[in-house]
Structure formats: structure tokens, C-alpha cells
Amino acid sequence: MNIEEKFNQEMLNLYQVVGKATGYWANYYLRFVRQHGGLAYAKKALGKKDDAQDGFKKLIEVGRPDLSVEATVLKDEYRSLFTADEIKEAQRRIDTVPNYAWRKPIKPNMNFSGEIEEDELFTEGSIKRVTVNLYERNPAARKKCIDKYGYNCKVCGMSFEKTYGKIGQGFIHIHHIKPLAGIAGEYELNPIKDLVPVCPNCHAMLHTFEPPLSVEELKKILDKNKG
User: Residue ranges of the domains in the chain?
Assistant: First the structure.
């Protein structure tokens, strides 16, 4: 696989990585990359200074500019595919990202990943003050998530009922995939796309970064350390 083919594959992979990590599914991006290639998409995006940055702005909102096309272009192994002006434009955009928008590690004593009191509406975003500012979650949405995925942790596979018997029946945490920090006001929740069941241990480990790790990222960490 040559460097252009490798870049194209990474651009295709970005669609799944970004979607699973942030809940943002860039369908136009995927169609273009499949039809014309990742290099053509990157060059087209970098050639438009003002009107081709919606995806980049969205990634800033959810705290994952590291998953952007711009960040991919700036990787050392791909720089030779681009002109000096294209590299300069990618760097200019990365330089506009405010410091708070980059993923940061969360100290263990500040990791409040437990679930909280829920609301009756299929909306999220209004802030509730418990110990820290947390977002309201929804029991009906939780049920729909569990109806779809069951009670096993989607990271480690743990079943509380199998491990603890009757007292573990029906117990699981629900993790919100889409970073709530990037949501302004209330929005309509999709329990299938936005929520995933996890055990409390994995839930806490997902929240060791802000925005949280994706389920796939934590699975890789878990598998690596098991090995």
C-alpha cells in the first residue's frame, strides 16, 4: 500500500471513528471519499477558505479536532501529498482551535461518571446541579437503549446478573456517546445512536478524558492490557 492509498484508507476510517466517538456522521464526506478518494476530498476542503469547514467546526464543538481532516493532513507521513499552501491552510485551521476544545485527561478525584436523576422528556442539555454541573438523562431513553443492546457492558462484556446473581439483575450504567459539552440547549435524543450500556468501571474509564474516550478506544486499551 503506497502513501496515497494509506491516506485514503485513513480518511475512510475517519468516518466510523468520528461517528462512534462523537455521534456526528458525515455522510456527504463518506460519499465523496468513496467516489473520488480521500486525497481529492482533503485538497478540495483545504482549497475553500470559508465555506468548507462545517465538519471541522463540529469537531471543535465536541472537543475532537484531533479527528479532523486537517489534523490528518498534518501528520508527518502525509505531508508530502500536499502543497505548501495546503499545509499552511491546514495548520491555520488547527491554530484557530481554542485550547479548551482539545481532549484533556481528567484527574481520578474529578471523575464523576455515575448516572444521575433522570427527566421525563426526550431532551437533554438543561443543567442540573448535583455535586458538579451534570446534564439530565431520561428513563424512557435508557429503556430503549437497553431494549436494543441488553444489560452487558459494551466495553468488557460484563453481565451483573451472571456475576452477582439476582441482586445484579437489571443493573447497568448508560453512557452518553455524544459529548454533552458540545450541545447548546436541549436536543432530541436518539437512544440507539447516542447511548450505550456500560459497567460502572468502564464508565469511569471512558470519562478519564474530556471529551470521553470512545467505546472502541477503551476496548483497545482493555485488550492491550489483558494481553
Answer: 3-102, 105-226
Q: What are the residue ranges of helices labelled H in the chain?
A: 3-22, 27-36, 38-47, 54-61, 69-73, 84-95, 139-149, 160-164, 191-194, 200-206, 215-226
CB 160 within 8 A of CB 172: yes
pLDDT tens-digit map of 134-180: 334 578 888 899 999 999 999 999 999 999 999 999 999 988 887 65
CB 177 within 8 A of CB 194: yes
Structure-block grid coordinates of residue 113: 461518571
β-strands 127-129, 133-135 pairing: antiparallel
**pTM of this structure:** 0.65
Say if CB 78 and CB 72 are below 8 A apart.
yes
Angle among Cα 212, 216, 218 to the nearest 5 degrees reads 60
Determine the Cα–Cα distance for residues 65 and 213; give it in Å rounded to an integer: 14
